[in-house]
């Protein structure tokens, strides 16, 4: 994690409703902690001198100093999620190594996707000096948050059997036989899951590789579920499974 306990967040936006909305969103995710809000970039410069932050939710078009210009004044900027009503700054935003670029109005689901990108980045970053045992522990404790049943649910990667697309939603099937249905795009989630642990086998399915019990040319068996292998995914599935078999 960026912080041993929580990710310290600073919201910078000249619009009070936007600050209030992000404050509420941050409060809904237990891994995040709001350290403060600022109405402009100049105020944020002074705030950061006394209050360290791990993640900035940063508007761009603000009085006195643009958010993109503000980032260039920082020697070691925190992680950045741009929150703006303007598409025109997107390229510049990503050139500044932003984690994400969210267009207003911001839904909670879109906010959560951006936050999960921050979480995923930190889980996958393990210094090369760490022993292999620590690497394995870091992987086994990796998780993402999803909104379901009007609450935030933490899902550990190790507890996932497979994920199924349901139009605008996904269903996460867990090892304890419980399922979580949440609004999410399967392709977006695919990018956030480690390729060493998860495999897309069909336009509607992502599976946990280590949960496979058996397979043949057209399907994979996981627990009591037989999942189809899409014809456009067969080559990738065959390559991954053959490589996995060779190492066992």
Chain-wise SSE layout:
Blueprint: E1 7-12, H1 16-27, E2 32-38, H2 41-50, E3 55-58, H3 67-72, E4 79-84, H4 90-95, E5 100-103, H5 108-124, H6 132-140, E6 143-148, E7 151-156, E8 160-166, E9 169-174, E10 179-183, H7 186-192, E11 198-202, E12 205-208, E13 214-215, E14 219-222, E15 225-228, H8 234-247
Parallel strand pairs: 1-2, 1-3, 3-4, 4-5
Antiparallel strand pairs: 6-7, 8-9, 8-12, 9-10, 11-12, 13-14, 14-15
Describe what you observe in this structure:
The chain has 248 residues and is of the alpha/beta class. The protein has two domains: 7-121, Rossmann fold (3-Layer(aba) Sandwich); 137-247, OB fold (Dihydrolipoamide Acetyltransferase, E2P) (Beta Barrel), CATH 2.40.50.1020. 33% of the residues lie in helices and 31% in strands. The protein contains eight helices and 15 strands. It has helices at residues 16-27, 41-50, 67-72, 90-95, 108-124, 132-140, 186-192, 234-247, and strands at residues 7-12, 32-38, 55-58, 79-84, 100-103, 143-148, 151-156, 160-166, 169-174, 179-183, 198-202, 205-208, 214-215, 219-222, 225-228. Strand 6 (143-148) and strand 7 form a beta hairpin. It starts with 6 loop residues before the first strand and ends with a helix.
């Amino acid at each position: 994690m960026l912080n041993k306990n929580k990710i310290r967040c600073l919201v910078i936006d000249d619009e009070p409703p936007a600050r209030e909305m992000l404050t509420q969103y941050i409060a809904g995710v237990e891994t995040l902690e709001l350290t403060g809000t600022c109405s402009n970039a100049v105020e944020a410069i002074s705030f950061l001198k006394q209050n360290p932050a791990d993640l900035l939710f940063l508007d761009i078009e603000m009085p006195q100093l643009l958010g993109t210009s503000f980032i260039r004044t920082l020697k070691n900027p925190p992680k950045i999620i741009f929150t703006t009503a303007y598409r025109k700054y997107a390229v510049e935003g990503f050139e500044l190594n932003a984690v994400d670029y969210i267009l207003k109005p911001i839904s909670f689901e879109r906010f959560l996707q951006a936050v999960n990108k921050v979480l995923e980045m930190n889980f996958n970053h393990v210094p090369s000096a760490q022993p292999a045992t620590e690497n394995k522990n870091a992987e086994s404790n990796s998780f993402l948050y999803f909104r379901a049943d009007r609450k935030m649910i933490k899902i550990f990667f190790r507890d996932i059997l497979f994920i199924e697309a349901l139009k605008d939603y996904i269903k996460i099937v867990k090892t304890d036989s419980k399922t979580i249905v949440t609004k999410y795009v399967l392709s977006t989630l695919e990018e956030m899951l480690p390729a060493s642990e998860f495999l897309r086998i069909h336009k509607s399915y992502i599976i946990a590789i280590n949960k496979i019990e058996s397979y043949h040319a057209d399907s994979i068996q996981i627990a009591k579920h037989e999942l189809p292998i899409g014809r456009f995914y067969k080559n990738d599935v065959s390559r991954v499974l053959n490589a996995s078999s060779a190492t066992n």
